[in-house]
Write a structure and sequence with these properties.
2 domains; 6-stranded antiparallel barrel; 6-stranded mixed sheet; SH3 type barrels; mainly beta
Length: 177
């Protein structure tokens, strides 16, 4: 029996926007910077009932605006494809992180965030892009707080330990207290 795929070893890259055509193709919207995933990956994961399930890609047509029309194995009808609309799309972190010095902000979900002066803040629950401003959602002292993600603030990053240390500006936490 095979072990289930560990969701912590995956990065969310987008979602299934809608069906495309009548042959079961799906239109995938993905985050900017993930175009090359479609060249390197044989399959994508859809999150189904909280678990990543692999779907093998047969044909890919990249579109403008970070979208791709994809034909997957075993999805032959529009009705069958409709079931997956809205599903999160994930990839194995190996495709996203070729080495320790490279990362995409979307893969930080689930990482433990540390501040250089306050220590451990908590786990990164969400990552959002507000018009080019990347914001991390973290549970800190039983409160949900939003913190900016800027490469200049990153002090340390450990992919294997799934930790990131940042040096947040003085006074930032005073806003949430």
């Amino acid at each position: 029996m095979r072990n289930p795929i560990n969701k912590n070893n995956c990065t969310e890259i987008g979602y299934v926007k809608k069906t495309h055509g009548i042959s079961g193709d799906l239109l995938i919207n993905f985050e900017e910077g993930f175009e090359t995933i479609f060249d390197d990956a044989e399959f994508l994961f859809f999150e189904i009932d909280g678990l990543p399930v692999p779907f093998f890609m047969e044909e890919i047509e990249l579109r403008d605006n970070n979208a791709a029309a994809v034909k997957f194995s075993f999805i032959e009808t529009k009705e069958k494809a409709q079931y997956y609309v809205g599903s999160k799309v994930l990839v194995d972190n190996i495709l996203v992180l070729p080495d320790e010095n490279t990362f995409h902000f979307m893969m930080l979900k689930g990482f433990t965030l540390f501040d250089s002066t306050r220590g451990k803040l908590g786990s990164i629950r969400e990552i959002d892009d507000y018009s080019g401003n990347i914001v991390l959602t973290v549970d800190y002292q039983k409160e949900e707080i939003l913190l900016p993600l800027n490469e200049d603030l990153i002090m340390a990053f450990d992919q294997k330990k799934r930790t990131i240390e940042m040096d947040f500006p003085q006074g930032l936490f005073d806003l949430s207290e």
